[in-house]
Every structure is written in C-alpha cells, then in structure tokens.
Amino acid sequence: MAIGIVSYGAYVPRYRIKIEEIARLWGDDAEALKNGLMVYEKSVPDIDEDAATIAVEAARNAMIRSGVDPSRIGAVYTGSESHPYAVKPTSTIVAQAIGATPVMTAADFEFACKAGTAAVQACMGLVGSGMVDLGLAIGADVSQGAPSDALEYTAAAGGVACLIGKKESELAAIIEDTYSFTTDTPDFWRREGMPYPEHGGRFTGEPGYFKHITNGAKGLLEKLGTKPSDYDYAVFHQPNGKFPSKAAKMLGFTKDQITPGLVVPKIGNTYSGSCLMGIAATLDQAKPGDRIFATAFGSGAGSDAFSITVTDRIEEIRNRAPTVSELIKDPVYIDYARYARHKGKIRLA
Is the dihedral of CA 8, 50, 111, 87 positive or negative? Predict the structure, then answer.
C-alpha cells in the first residue's frame, strides 16, 4: 500500500527585510553575516498575520491544488513553535477555514523546526491504518529572535501544508519510507511566557543540527539500501544556507541536488515550514519518476528523514496554486522600525 502526498500548498508573506538593514541598526558587518549565513533577506509577517493565518493560507492552496472534498479530511495537525494561543488549537481554526469540520480530529504539534514533518508522520500513520481517509499536515511559523540576537537575521515567516492520502490515483508523490533520530539535546529553548527563545549559539551546530541530520539521513539510506546518487533532489532543514550545504556535502549529496529546494537565502528560516518549504519548491519543478530525499531537524533535538518518489499526477496539480518561486517574487521591503512593529518587538510596559 502506497502512502504519500496528494497535494501541497505554501504561503510566504510579501514583506521582507534585508540583512543590511538589521546590521545597520546593531552595528554589525552585513557582508560578513551574508557570507557566513548565506541568507540575504528574510520574510516578515504583516501586522495581522500569525502562524494560524499562514497555516490557513497554505492549507487553502493545498486544497485548491487537490480538488478533493474537504469533508474527506479526517485529521488536521499543525506544527509550529509560534502558535498564537497557549491554550486554543491552531488546527481547529485551519480545519474550519477549509471546511473540514466537524467529523475529524485535530491537534497542534510542537518540536521546534520539525513539528511540521512530525505532523506528516502522524498523518501517514492514521491514513495507513485506515482510521482516516486523508490527513492534513502543516508546518507554519512566525519565528522569533530577540533584538540584536543572531537569530534576528534568519528567523522568518511562512508555512506549508501537505495533504496525505493513499489512493493511488490521487498521489502526486509517494513517501516510500521515513526514519527518525531523536535525543534530549537542549540546544534551543523557550520557556512558557518568555517572548524570545534562547540558544547555545555556535556551539550547538555539531551536537544539534549535524548529529541529528546526518544520523537521520544515514539511517534512512541504510534502511532502504539506497545511496545519494539514487536521488534527483535533496532537501535538508534550512536554518541558514550554510548548514544544509555542509550537511549535503557530508552525506555525499551534490550542490545540484539541493539547489532547487534551497530557498532560505531569499526568505530566511521558516522554522516548522523550513524543510517542507524546500520539498514544496522541489515538487514545483520535479518530473514524474524523480526521487527526493529530505531530512528535517528540530532543536531539542531530532530529525525526520523521508524518501519520496514523484508520480505523473504532479503535472496535473502543480499549476493550480502559486509555486514557492511565485510566492517569493515581488517582495515589499521594509525598514527596521516597521519590521519591529510587524513583529511586536515594540512593547508598552
């Protein structure tokens, strides 16, 4: 029995702030930052946008692409580390907005930047067991970085929704298998009630990102008996442009394999939407029969790896909704003052 992606949809806010503008305010070296991070600008939510509205837009694009009856959706799971409510699910908002209620289950997921792929795995399980016909998994964030913190240069906004099913005639991409690697590694955290996350800075890359990405990826390759050259494309979590490029090289994937899905230089790190955004950008241009290898990472820490094969149906659904490249086009650039207002960084005592 094949389980896979019936449809997908992305959303990226139009507002952007350039690295030079943030560096100007804090007196940092913009060129050094751009060269080190391989990020040149990042997306910024509008004043009335949050993880819920972004999730809704992504879900609507996925439904437009699919053409399926939303009442068939039996589960909606939204992964985010910036849910707008501490107590009130984002997923019920999404389900109501797309017409999937009331005969369905919903929950919100949290696992830093891999909450979206964790939702995909949960939907795969429900669909595979026959408990639901279709499941909708979403990764959406309006990620936070404290003023002058290193995260402020990359923490961005965006989201992706994946409709998961098992009817062969509906699958645009088959998820051949998945593999996860998880440990308790406190590289990044935010306590309840705190406005900004904390992190271990540059010392967290090896025990956090690289350890989990490489072990998750190697685990799936060994499980399937495949090698990097068996894949046409590869996607790795994109906290910046440097990390996924290094991870790909460590694992034996080429620059040509990761370039189509490497969107972080133009929009920053969309956190729970990051790996899924890379997958969506790749699906936007992949051909039937192409294989995609993807590995998400979430601080705390864990990775989810996926092996995906594109089907003929991709050609039928691809152009029904905006592609990632279309969503990235025509940005509206703002200065730091407007950025601070949009992100709620200006607080009254």
Answer: negative
